[in-house]
Every structure is written in structure tokens, then in C-alpha cells.
What does this fold into?
Amino acid sequence: ELFYRFQLNPVHGVPIMKPIADNWERIEAFQARPDDLLVATYPKAGTTWMQEIVDSIINDGDLKKVKCAPMHVRFPFLEICNPPPVPCGVDILEGTTSPRKIKTHLPYELIPRSFWEHDCKVIYVARNAKDSAVSYYHFDLMEKTQPHPGTWEEYVGKFLKGNVPWGGWFDHVIGWWKARAKHQILYMFYEDMKEDPKREIHKVMRFLGKDLTEDLLEKICQHTSFKAMKENPMANYSTTPASVLDQSISKFMRKGEVSDWKNHFTVQQNEMLDAEYQKRMEGTDLKFRFSI
Ligand code: PPS
It folds into this structure.
């Protein structure tokens, strides 16, 4: 079988899946172009949702274009790397015509410097730690290349220690938050997007320098709703083989809600996370909502 659950190897102290760590020199040397657009997230923060929004805006709401190919083709994943013959993200991107749309889960410190030399635009999406953990746990059960999450109890421990692919949630959201001072970064929150999708899509539109009509905005809202994306084979990863993403275990478009963590965290696990949150967020002006 081509795919198996990879080990995590540290890259500059961040646990990264082995094939990505093995390819690190090429990822680090990646050549960005000034008109590249990066969507950066900690895993499970709403990456795919933002990607679909961005692609819809860039294509002026022309859904025929947006539905032309699965997400990973329209919006390649920068660092992703599997054993040959599957091409790595950097190979795919080198052969992609501009303007490129690029997905990454890399923490700010690991982004290839070329992106900053060209002052590329970045949209970062952050989601509260508890819902991120729940979503990541279910994903790791069904994503067959990532380490097995173990029990939920075990997973909460690993998540808090940052011993999961792409490292710790706290370092990630804080690192990108601080980076806003230096770069063109639009920092978005999953909870805001759930609260008022049209308001948040409008923000993205402005950041991309677009000015779409109210009707088109409405159309994009509909097209990027959880229900529509769950049913859209070009957005729901149903084209990915079950040997990699086994959606009979858990759907990629699983629940799409804020505060599902209340159905998973025990009182004690919740207190543990709250304590860590207090400690780690102190001194930052970054705030998350755990319910809306
Ligand atoms: S990945 O693998 O990191 O790219 O995953 P990512 O896309 O970041 O996160 C998947 C979670 O986002 C939810 N999702 C949505 N929520 C609301 N609206 C829309 N349109 C939407 N699309 C995806 C998806 O259901 C996953 O969250 P959970 O909580 O597991 O349902």
C-alpha cells in the first residue's frame, strides 16, 4: 500500500510528517511569486471553507470555473509530500500558472522566506482551540497518512503538548497573529465566519481588491455554506481515495459548527485546556470565542 501513517520528525523544533521533513530543503527554497495568494491555517481551522470563498471571489462568482476541479488541484498544498510517484506540493506549484492560490499549514516561522521577499498576501484563518482539537481528532482517525490519534483522552494530551502534525495550536495562532505587523496578512476567525458569513466574505473580497455586487456576494455565501460544500464533490474531498481519507470513518465535512467541543471535553479536560489557554495567551491581545 502506498500510504501509511507517517512518523513525526522535528523541523526547527516543529513536529512535521516525515515525508515533508525529508523534503524540507526544497520547501524552504520554494520560490514564491509576487501575485501568489497564501491561505494559511492550523489544521482544521476552516482552510477548505476559506479556499472555496477565495476561489469564488477570484472567479467573480462564476461557479462553473470554481467547480472545474477538486480543491487540491485548484489550490495546491505547499508542503504536502508523499512518497513517489505522487508529486509533492512544490513540484505541482512550480508547474502552476500565475496567479497561484496556495494552501499551507506551516507555522509562520517555517514559511519559505521568498513569500516575504515578494510581500505576498496571506489570509490566515484561526479557530478556537477546543473545536480545532475535536475536528483534528476526528480527522486523524480517518486520514490514513497522519499518526493515529489514539483515544480522545490520549489525543487531548498530545494536542496540548503540540505533539501533532504541524505542532502546537498556541504557537501557530500566536506566531501568525504577531506576524501581522510585518506583512500583508488578513487574520480571520472561524467563529466570525459562522456568525456572519456575508460580513466576513466581504472582508476577504476587499483584501483581494475585488468589488463584487450584492447578488454575487449572496451567491458566494450560498455556494460556500456548510451544506453546499458538504454536497460538492469538488470541495468535500470525496475524490480522494479511501486509502488516504476514509470518509466511512468520519466525513471531511463533519459538522461545521462552533462549540461541538462541549460534546467531547470532560470537565477535567476543559479545565486543563483553559489553564493552558490562560497561560499561553497572557500578554497577547489575541482572543478566541468558544461559543457564539
Ligand atoms: S484541513 O484538513 O486542515 O484542510 O481541514 P479544514 O478545511 O481546515 O477544516 C475542516 C473543518 O472545517 C469545517 N468546514 C466548514 N465549516 C463551516 N462551513 C463550511 N462551509 C465548512 N467547510 C468545512 C469542516 O466541517 C471541519 O470541521 P468539523 O468541526 O470537523 O466539522
